Records
---
Amino acid sequence: MAHPFLVKDIAFQAGLSTATVDRVLNGRPGVRQQTQLRVNAAIAELEKQQTGATSGGRILAIDIVMETPQRFSDAVRAAFESEMATFLPGVFRCRFHFAEVMKPAELAQLLDRIRLRGTDGIVLKAPDVAEVAAAVARADVAGIPVVTLVTDLPNSLRIAYAGADNRAAGETAAYLIGEFLGGDGGKVLVTLSSGRFRGEEEREIGFRRIIRSRYPDIGITEISEGHGSDRATGTLAAAALATDSAINAVYSIGGGNRAVLAAFDAAHRPVRVFVAHDLDADNRALLAAGRIGFVLHHDLRTDARSAFRAIMSRAQAPGLAVPASLSSIEIVTPYNMPACG
């Protein structure tokens, strides 16, 4: 397998040991197909990153760790890959660690493995729990900056948060739904992927505050712990609809929107207004088809840029505080949907 990269660089990118990569590259027996694919993908990623590299540029290798549904991790990967080339002559090399569901202990172990292997920074989307905060503290002690992405760990030793103002996003959703329903009332199905994520909790707090103060005739039913998966979220939505005939609107904080709509269809129930988050592939299709009315969108490339800048700032001046930077929230309809990328 011809390539210009060191075995240790391929191993870092693939998340494998150098011995395993050496076995793959030399065609030795006993290598699983999945391992072969990981090595091939790592080499392809390094080739892509090399396109923007210059001989005098510094390479900062960072790890992006996320517990999130694949439809969102795909969007995040695309955003970070698009932004990497904008930081010349320095170059960021990103290694991605994505899982739809992870136990806190598994997340902490992954962060510890990254710390021990070595990295110039970690970008993290994770639940706000003690095990994760402790792992962030261990990284900080080791001199590794951690930037939280789209959901914060405010009581941890992370150096910065990259994302939108989640409480303001929830307030915006409440305004849209409240004004749309007007004085007719009804009840909003609020869907969370999990109550462990601070960002989702902040959205819900903002939403409830505006509904309670401005639209008291509108009720709220919450479902949670579907982890953004279609099957689990759809089951929770169907159960909520079966027990509450007043539900006529949706504020989707946690995703699984196709399944939520399918539950309404199966129950022969209309959705008067549906507000979702993030312009992933599913939401783009649902918005274009008129199945959802509004998407609260913030540019993930802006978030990636903020994360890169925070890590670069810490690398250049370890003692200085990193300034906060929030991405703006855009209300997207079927008529102003931005182009992909």
---
Amino acid sequence: MMANGFEPEFSPAVQQQLGQLKAHPPEVAPAPGIRDLRDQMWSSIDNDTSRDLDQIEVAEKLPDGTTQVLVAIADVDTFVPKGSAIDDHAAKQTTTVYTGVRNFAMLPEELSTGTTSLMENVDRLSLVIEFVVTSDGRVKSSDVYRAVVCNKAQLTYNAVGAWLENTAAAPPKVAASPDLQAQLRLQDEVAQALKGERYRHGALNIETIETTPVLLNQQVVGIANQRKNRATDLIEDFMIAANEVVARKLLDVSSIRRIVKTPERWDRIVALAAQLGEQLPPVADSKALNEFLTKRQATDPDHFADLSLAVIKLMGPGEYVLERPGDPEQGHFGLAVQDYTHSTAPNRRFADLATQRILKAKIANQPAPYSDDELAAIAQNCTAKGDAERKVEREMTKRIAAVAMSHRIGEVFDAIVTGVTPKGTFVRVLQPHVEGLLAQGQQGVDVGDKLRVKLTSTNVQRGYIDFSRA
């Protein structure tokens, strides 16, 4: 963490502020300008181990056939004033870093997994992003306001996803409540409509496979694949829609935008498609790219995660930028949207906390909390720290994989060749999802070839995994 510019420990000033917060907590109650929405059937869906809950959701079918969606975002700003010791720490870190074996929280965990987390059965202050969705997935109208909310059911992606896909029974909380079942089915239906509309506009259908360590007594004993499912899609689709609503709400004030530029290396994406017998237009076109990706997912599912990763790398990483009223919109190529920001995770992303403050000031008709220079500096730091975060997580993923594989030396695996470079030939084992160097028997193989490989050695400190041709 420290080698990549992070400060893993909180200062004494942060501890002092936490003590003051504990002694004099802000009031959590309806008030002028703060609605009471505690009676709604709110629920959260997150990872099995998540305790830093940033958002909860509820939906309602309206008489005209549209659906009103409410996404409540934790009001972190009330507990972490701008310029306070906790805020200064968060502004430097900009993000919570998840290393697989330990989380380095942007905010003290007493807040992020406690006081400002939208946990089950406790009243919490929030910003509610409301939007009305038509049956074909268009957002017809929207609003943003403050409210007190109460999460009625803390649920998980794996359990809800399996139930929505009819591959497992409903999790206990869902099984016990017909109202919650109806609520989640409605949310799933609206999310699918939102996704369909995004795809029609050219949003990219990309699949990446993430891994998570299997721990036993604090030791890594294995590695498991994390795949997207209907529940992860549901939350993703709601968050994208909510972030678009917030971005449009802030069109007339300076704010931070999340952008992915039109790919400068589009010619390489065109060449990649040509190698697979497909033709893409010479000028960057997200709709044509998405049609190509969708077709490849159907014809070659084994390689789709690798193709997705190649496209992501060629598109380049997202970045944060200052956008002032009247500035030309830069947009988000991967999502095929013009107005996009990050606003839905203020417990773990500083850009979202800054956006929350701008939003609250606008709702209350108060002066902007940041100058343009401050916002430009925040955007630049958030982009730089995002790159550093990915580096930490990538290095830790390699080390965790090396630990998990270290007791399997000599075993044989099915693998796919993922790269042939001057540095060597790389293969990805299909199960578990682990990449390594083909150190012996690499002659004559090319990207996409399927092989049987034997694990020959691991180096945990360096995150190296070596295979030979079986």
---
Amino acid sequence: MEKPGVTAIILAAGYSERMKQFKPLLDLGGRPAIERVISAFKGAGIADIHVVAGYCKEKLIQALAGLSVRIIINDRYAAGMFSSVQAGVKSLDSSSEAFFLMPADVPLVRPETIRYMVDVYSRRREKILIPVFGTRRGHPPLVAGRFAGPVIDYDGENGLRGVFGLYNADIVTLPVPDSNILLDMDTPEDYASLRERLQRINIPTAAECDVIMSDIHNVTDAVIGHCRTVAAVALFIADKMNRRGCNIDRELLMSAALLHDLAKGRPDHAVESARIIRGMGYPAVAELVETHMDIIPGKGETVSAAEVLYLADKLVSGDRVVSLKEHSGRAVDRYGDKAEVVGRISIRYENATAILNRIEAQTGALNISSRIKAGALP
């Protein structure tokens, strides 16, 4: 299906009163916040980008030089954000079938989220599409062009929320696996949190993993339960290793464990899960997930996060922690009449045992097998 012509309207005209600094030009990872917003839209394939300026417009115009955006001046910015919304919507031309409305102080929304919204909109035109994370609505809404007139003409209360309230039947809420749609920087504390979040932007949070599994891909409760137990076992092992001087990235490992069976039930599900995750913008997570079924163990002392995930997966049957021998035995009982499959099971058991031995040699007192028998693992 042909995709609609979409314009991004970025609202950057306000006073930034609570921040005490002009928010669009605050540094985020070596770039102004507004440049990150613009890059997100460009990364999603949107070329028609309008930036509404007002307060500090000279500094903003200078900062935007060379970024190939259209600058719209809102001389009424003192009237509030909705005046900037109206100025931006007035700037639309006839080629704009729909438009995003994005405050410049919501700078970490992923390009993949914007692209996903456009893809969904292309199948549900003439609507107002609002991204949702969990139960909370966030930014940016994607609005059908037919609502441009009502936005421009509206003079009631509550600004854009008031306009949307007139068209509740046309609003579609869309779950997205991106908590950044909720993160603005109204205050210095918000700004500090965003800077911290930026450091791990390429790793989904546990909450984002839950949305990916439950709301986006409708994975069964049984598979989700298995993934959560694998994550608990993997983090137990990683913590023991890190106390002995190893450097396993807990966040990366946790995310990979929570998502590793995303495509369970499909052919070659480890590779398919990795493909989906990579498409979401998480290549490091995908790399671990891709080898959770079959891996070539390392030979040296260093044990990788991918090997920890591989081992943890072999220590869990359903949502129950088991020994490697029990896990392998159950698989053989299930596929005993298929020699090729049994051969792969044997190799996986040998690889997992080799990884376990290296971990226990390195940590000295992990004793996973004994802990399983004693019920001491999660």
---
Amino acid sequence: MRVLMLLLCLVAVVGCGDNGGRVPVTGMVTFDGKPLENGNITFGGDQGAAGVGQIVNGSFSLSETGEEDGVIPGSYTVIIGSWFEERGSVRDDGSFSPGKTRIPLIYLEPEKSGLKAEVKTGEKNHFTIDLTSTAGKSGK
């Protein structure tokens, strides 16, 4: 009976550490050479798994400590969003006036921005992402 109880406790302890194979991802996001003050970052992929985190003073961290934290290893597109300087509003004619963000909206469109990341098992997954105010503008 003691052996059975010991085995059950061992299985319970090992099971508590399962994070679905997610690994920690950290990094730095700059905008025109300076740390992006605040925003969010999303790792999205074909496998349906994603990691989402906040950017604060240029830094972000997605850890593996919780079930929903970290990122499953694989190839990802990266989406960067920043807080709005001006919120969108409804005009008098009923149309919508979009808000203004601190960074170009192209960074919300991974197929246009080209931001990608390869998250690997057993490696330090630290990414530096450099954004520019001229991204997406013709002739630049």
